[in-house]
Each structure stands twice: as structure tokens, then as C-alpha cells.
Design brief:
The protein is α+β, with helices and mostly antiparallel strands and 731 residues long. 40% of the residues lie in helices and 17% in strands. The radius of gyration is 32 Å and the shape is globular. Strand 18 and strand 19 form a beta hairpin. Helix 11 packs parallel to helix 13 and helix 14 crosses helix 16.
Length: 731
């Protein structure tokens, strides 16, 4: 999709052929010559479309070529007279994009849209005309890859174009397939552009398009895009890697001899298999060189074993591990647990007779097609089955993985294009995904059981899992159990972990600023940031219905640090405190959680509400410094504290195993219940725990603090927002 693409004959193109299955360049040259001859048909097909049709029929023997012919004639006539910067007729570009997709096995609708993908953007053709001639499906695909005008969007045109394309991909993944093929051809023909423009396009390709190709499983496009970007952004490393590869081409290939031995072993075992040597592409060779520091001939490729059935994959694995010495640490089973991008294979490594280690991939022929072409190999995932159409306006998309749903979710809440662009790059930079099994109740609260599987980027924490699982309701998360053991929300999750999220029954609970340090996904970071921004104004908001202190539920002495379901009803703040301002509603500040008999003061905020703070709360000093006049407040019932209340305590201790469990046991023994808890990372063998607790009676606060101080290793317990004071003055 670019009138700016240039001469395809750039230096190093021959070297990039090694390491991947190249899409047919001779076919592209044939297209270039045929495009000069115009659309004159021969045997019912235009000259330029013959090679595309032949390749397409190789994957889809019964394909109807009439629609392709009609699309080509419209594209050729619309682009007639337009030239690329290389001087070629512009029609060679949509033809080349279509050939790339045809080589990967794309179905006819995708190829039709790829022929027309630049017509609406660069010619007088309209979307209405495309819809009338080719139907709504082709129109949707063409619209999805059509760029937004810089005249209308200015500097935001590029991020907003990708936002538009991402949303369209959420409904139809074929949109991104066309975009990837379009970018691949443009990258192949980037050579005559200014170096600074080459670098800019290459960086966007690296940061956005290559990760998307990985997530959609289109490895054939990803590998070539990586090499093209590598050559532009890192020319010296590219030249070094290319020279190393060329140096080994004149030597005997150790993998070829090992492949022959594998064939013999499998033949003797009666396993029908195809054994190939699969060269690495340049970026892969470069990564291996960085990891191992020194290359061998076996490092330049991998063995690929293709079989007919899934069971044959495991039979091959057994023979290899029996007849060769396996490297056990290299074994991975992506058949039983496929990757998030549909990829399936068995990975292993075996040692040859000369000591060479050969990485080996074992997969079926169908797995191989999906590994190369990803979602493109699935054909049309939206075609109705068994004669039943999907409901109107709904697409049951089997190819939409968790990462795409996450991107679509957080982009809706990110209107700023710069924030969206930065968050998109950050999210796509997380190039590996893990699967976590949730054992907590469903987020909708239904009675349909518990459990669920969620996908997260590698390195995600319990905080990320909470927001992926519960959305905004994750603000009330107070802890987690990972693989059955109590864990902090900062705990990093690993593939296959079992997770139980512990939720507070009180919806007034919320995240702490430290959560931002542990959140990796944009959805979690944005949700936390919004809540924190709103909480800064909490002292200036009138109390809503039911706001105030909540009574603590009866404590369970076996408590593990979280509330049991079924908190007692909310106790209005007016039942605890009264302000010297007639008719004013009273709200207890969450920043310092005052309880009877604390010395308190108040400040009037919007709506005539008085927010009650402890006299020692830092907010009081800040408000007084700005000239705000305090309002007198007092506790009802002479401050005896007969009602349940909430308090935030800081426990400072020496770090040791089981400290969290012992502290929560001490809290439960005093009849208190945990609303939320946070544990800071240990520093110089010291750790700080922060608890927000419900007490059935404020009079029990001194004994609660004493019980917590008696826990071994704890050297101090303080009220939040309270400075240190002599021990004699503490509760």
C-alpha cells in the first residue's frame, strides 16, 4: 500500500533467500512484465493474473477465478498511469501483494481484497462501488487497510490508521493479513528511498508489524520482514551475519548427514516421515550467535520432520530419543499446549555422532502449513458451517486470541493517539504469552462453577491477571494464591500456573500506587491510573449512598488474609460522627481512616459534605496551608466506638518466611477482617506490610496493634499517616 515503494533490486537480496521459504520472485518479475502488456485477456484471464491464478489453484483447486479477474480489471484501470517510485506501473504492487497471499494459501475473498486494497486510497474508486461489485465482505477488508488522510488527522494519522486497522482486525483477521503482505512487498522495494525514510518505515515494521505477524502465526512473512529490517537498521551486524553464513556454505553440512541418519531410523521403525534441513534466516542466526558466542555448522539450521498424524509426532520423538542422545532441556510440547498464535510442534534437540547438536522440529503437514501461514492457512474462518449462518452482526471468530481481545479492550479507553501508539508498541514488545488457569469464581458472579483460562504476556503479575479476569472489578483484589500458596499481587506468573484471586467484598477497596510498578499490560496500567487519578479527588467528592464505614464480618481464626463472602451491612458515617455544620453529610476520609476516639477535624467539600480526617493526617496540613477553613467534628456517643469501623495499619518487620501468614492470623484472632493488604519488597532485610482492616468495634484497636507487635519479627505497628512517636504514647 504505497506509491513510495521503490526498486526491488536492492543489495543483499540474494543473501536473504537463505533461511526461509522464499515466495516466488520469478513470479513477481513475470507480473511486472505482464503488467506492461495491460489487461488483455488470454484464455479468459488477463496476462498479469495468470501466475497468481496458477498458485491460487494449487491451494484451492475449485476456486472461482471470475471474481479475481473482475477485481484485477478494476484495479488495473483505476491505477493506470500511476507509477511507483521505481518507475514500475503501480498495478505491480497490488499484484505482488496478492501473489504473496496466494503463496500462503489465502482464499479468494482475501485475494480479491488485496487486488483492490489501494484503489479507495489512491484512485477515484469508492467503497460503495467496491460493495456493489464485490459484496460487503470484500468492502470491509478494503476499508480496513485503507489509511486515514494526513490532511484530516495530521501527526495522528499513522497511530489512528493502526487503531482503525486493529479494530477491523478484531472483526476479521484477514485485514491484518493483507496489511502484512502489503508491508512485506514495500519493504522488499524500499531501496531507492531516502535513508531516513527507510529507517522510519523499518522501525514501525519492527515495533508493530513484525510482532503482529508473530501473534497471527504468519512465520513466513515475519522471518522475511525481520531480515529486511535487520539489513536497514543494523547494516554492520547484518553484513557480519551474512558473511558467516556464506562462509559455511562452502563446508560440508553436518545437518544433511544427520538428516539422512534420521530418515534411516524412521524407515526402520516403519514411520512414514519427510525429513528436511530447514535453514535459519539471518536474524535467527544472529540471535544464536549472540546466545552461544560461537557458531557451528549445525547452528545454521534445524531438522524438520513432517508426518501425517499427531500420534506419529510422538512416535518420531520416541525413536529420536531412543537412537540419539537427546538434550532434555530443549524439549517442548507445543502440540499438547499450542502457542497463543496457533503454533503446534514438538521441539527437541539430539546429538549426532560427531557431537553436533541438532535442534529438531516435529509436526504434521497441517501443523506446518499453520506454522508458516498462521491464520491465513485457515482459509475463511467466517464461512458458515452446516448451512447455519452466524447471528446478524456477530462473528464467531475462532482465530481471535486473548492478546487481540486485550488490545481491542484497552484501545477503547485510550482516546489520545500518542498514548495509544506508545501503549501499542509496549504491548507488542512483549513477544511471548503464557497461559494461567484461574480457580476463582467467574467474574460475572454466575453460579456456573469456577475456573477459566486466561492468556497473559510473559512477565505478567497477579495484578495483570486480576484486571484480565475481572476488569474494573479488580480494584477490589486483595491478594492471590499461586499454585495453592498465598502470594502477593506483585508475584510474576509463569506458564501453566494455577491462580486464585482473592477479592474484597467491599467495593470501596482500591489499588495502591505500587500496583503500577507490577502491572505489565496496558489494560491494567490504564485502569489503575484512572482509579488513582479519581481517588486523588476523593476528598472533594460528596458521599454517595451507602458510603462510609462498613462493619467487619465475624473473623475466622483460620483466615489466610482475605475476607469471607458476606460482609455485614454498611454503617453510615453519620452514625459515627457529627459535624458542626447544620444539615451537612459526613464522610470519613479513606486517606487516614479515622476511628473513635481519634482526634479529628473536618473540611467542607462539594455538595455540602464534610470530610472527616484524623488531626495528624498530612492532608489536614495541606488543606490548612491553602487557606481552607476547618469544620468542627466529634464522635457520637462520647467517642466510645460502639460501631464497626475501618482502619489502615502499617506493620514494619524483619523479613522472614511465613510472616504474612502469622500477621493475618494475629489479625483474625482479634476479630478483624482484611479489606486489602500490600507487601513492599524487602529492603535491607526489612519489609513493610500495609493492611486496611474492618474492626467490629473501634475500642479493640489498641489490643489489635499489640497483638500484631507480638508477632515474631515485627518491630513496630503504626496507623497510616501517623508519624513515629515514643512507645509510651502509642496504643
Amino acid at each position: 500500500m504505497s506509491a513510495e515503494a521503490t526498486n526491488p533490486g536492492n543489495p543483499g537480496a540474494a543473501g536473504r533467500k537463505r533461511g526461509r521459504r522464499r515466495l516466488e520472485l520469478r513470479g513477481l518479475r513475470r507480473i511486472g512484465r505482464a503488467a506492461l502488456l495491460g489487461p488483455a485477456p488470454r484464455d479468459g484471464l488477463p496476462h498479469a493474473l495468470e501466475h497468481v491464478a496458477k498458485v491460487h489453484r494449487g491451494h484451492h483447486p475449485d476456486a472461482d477465478l471470475d471474481t479475481l479477474t473482475k477485481a484485477y480489471l478494476l484495479a488495473e484501470s483505476s491505477h493506470r498511469g500511476q507509477l511507483r517510485k521505481s518507475g514500475e506501473p503501480y498495478i505491480t504492487h497490488p499484484l505482488a501483494v496478492t501473489l504473496i497471499l496466494a503463496e500462503l494459501g489465502a482464499e479468494t475473498t482475501t485475494l480479491t481484497a488485496s487486488l483492490l486494497h489501494d484503489t479507495v486510497e489512491d484512485t477515484e474508486v469508492t467503497l460503495d462501488l467496491v460493495r456493489d461489485l464485490f459484496g460487503a465482505e470484500v468492502c470491509y477488508l478494503v476499508d480496513g487497510v485503507t489509511k486515514l488522510e494526513k490532511v484530516d488527522y495530521g501527526a495522528a494519522a499513522e497511530p489512528e490508521t493502526f487503531r482503525k486497522m486493529l479494530v477491523a482486525t478484531g472483526n476479521d483477521v484477514r485485514v491484518m493479513s493483507i496489511k502484512l503482505a502489503d508491508r512485506l512487498h514495500n519493504m522488499r522495494t524500499l531501496g531507492v528511498m531516502r535513508p531516513e525514510k527507510q529507517a522510519r518505515i523499518a522501525k514501525v515494521t519492527r515495533d508493530v508489524l513484525i510482532p503482529l505477524a508473530e501473534r497471527l502465526g504468519v512465520q513466513a512473512l515475519k522471518a522475511e520482514l525481520e531480515d529486511l529490517v535487520f539489513a536497514i537498521l543494523h547494516p554492520e551486524e547484518y553484513a557480519t551475519t551474512r558473511a558467516l553464513v556464506m562462509e559455511y556454505t562452502s563446508r560440508p553440512d553436518p545437518l544433511a548427514a544427520l538428516a539422512q541418519r534420521v530418515r534411516t531410523v524412521l524407515d526402520e521403525a516403519g514411520i512414514d516421515a519427510e525429513v528436511l534441513v530447514r535453514p535459519r534466516h539471518f536474524v535467527s542466526v544472529h540471535r544464536v550467535r549472540l546466545a552461544r558466542r560461537e557458531l557451528t555448522g549445525a547452528d545454521l539450521g534445524r531438522l524438520l520432520v513432517l508426518v501425517a498424524e499427531d500420534a506419529d509426532c510422538y512416535a518420531v520423538l520416541g525413536e529420536l530419543h531412543t537412537c540419539f542422545t537427546p538434550v532434555i532441556s530443549e524439549f517442548k510440547d507445543f502440540i499438547a499446549a499450542p502457542k497463543f498464535n496457533l503454533y503446534q510442534s514438538l521441539h527437541t534437540a539430539v546429538t549426532g555422532p560427531s557431537g553436533e547438536v541438532a535442534e529438531t522440529l516435529i509436526r504434521t503437514h497441517q501443523m506446518h502449513r499453520v506454522a508458516e501461514a498462521g491464520v491465513i492457512a485457515l482459509g475463511n474462518p467466517y464461512a458458515p458451517t452446516d448451512g447455519v449462518d452466524a447471528p446478524e452482526g456477530e462473528r464467531a471468530d475462532p482465530t481471535r486470541p486473548g492478546w487481540l481481545s486485550r488490545l481491542l479492550e484497552w484501545q477503547r479507553t485510550t482516546p489520545d493517539p500518542d498514548t495509544f501508539w506508545t501503549s501499542l508498541r509496549d504491548d507488542l514488545a512483549q513477544d511471548r504469552e503464557i497461559t494461567v488457569f484461574c480457580t476463582d469464581a467467574p467474574p460475572d458472579g454466575s453460579s456456573g462453577g469456577t475456573g477459566g483460562v486466561i492468556g497473559l504476556p510473559a512477565g505478567a503479575s497477579c495484578v495483570d491477571a486480576a484486571y484480565e479476569r475481572h476488569g474494573e472489578a479488580a480494584h477490589c483484589c486483595i491478594g492471590a494464591r499461586v499454585n495453592g500458596r498465598l502470594a502477593t499481587l506483585s508475584t510474576v506468573l509463569h506458564d501453566g500456573d494455577s491462580l486464585q484471586l482473592l477479592m474484597a467484598p467491599d467495593s470501596a477497596a482500591g489499588p495502591s500506587p505500587e500496583w503500577l510498578e507490577h502491572a505489565r499490560t496496558p489494560a491494567a496500567r490504564l485502569a489503575i491510573a484512572r482509579w488513582l487519578a479519581g481517588s486523588r479527588e476523593s476528598c472533594a467528592r460528596p458521599a454517595g449512598p451507602g458510603e462510609g464505614l462498613t462493619a467487619a464480618p465475624p473473623a475466622d481464626r483460620r483466615s489466610t488474609g482475605h475476607d469471607r463472602p458476606g460482609a455485614d451491612p454498611v454503617v453510615p458515617a453519620s452514625a459515627l460522627a457529627v459535624a458542626d455544620l447544620p444539615g451537612a453529610a459526613v464522610r470519613l476520609a479513606r486517606c487516614c481512616t479515622p476511628v473513635p476516639p481519634d482526634a479529628v477535624t473536618g473540611f467542607a467539600v462539594r455538595g455540602g459534605t464534610v470530610t472527616v480526617h484524623r488531626a495528624l493526617c498530612p492532608v489536614v496540613a495541606r488543606m490548612a496551608a491553602t487557606g481552607r477553613q476547618p469544620v468542627g467534628v466529634r464522635w457520637r456517643g462520647a467517642g466510645q466506638g460502639g460501631h464497626g469501623c475501618r482502619v489502615t495499619l502499617l506493620a514494619e518487620a524483619f523479613s522472614r518466611p511465613h510472616l504474612l501468614a502469622d500477621l493475618t492470623e494475629a489479625i483474625a484472632s482479634q476479630g478483624a477482617a482484611v479489606v486489602s493488604a500490600a507487601v513492599e519488597p524487602p529492603h535491607e532485610q526489612r519489609v513493610r506490610h500495609t493492611y486496611t482492616l474492618h474492626l467490629p468495634n473501634a475500642a479493640g484497636l489498641p489490643s489489635l496493634m499489640r497483638a500484631m507487635r507480638q508477632v515474631p519479627g515485627v518491630f513496630d505497628v503504626l496507623r497510616a499517616g501517623r508519624s513515629r512517636q515514643p512507645a509510651a504514647l502509642r496504643p
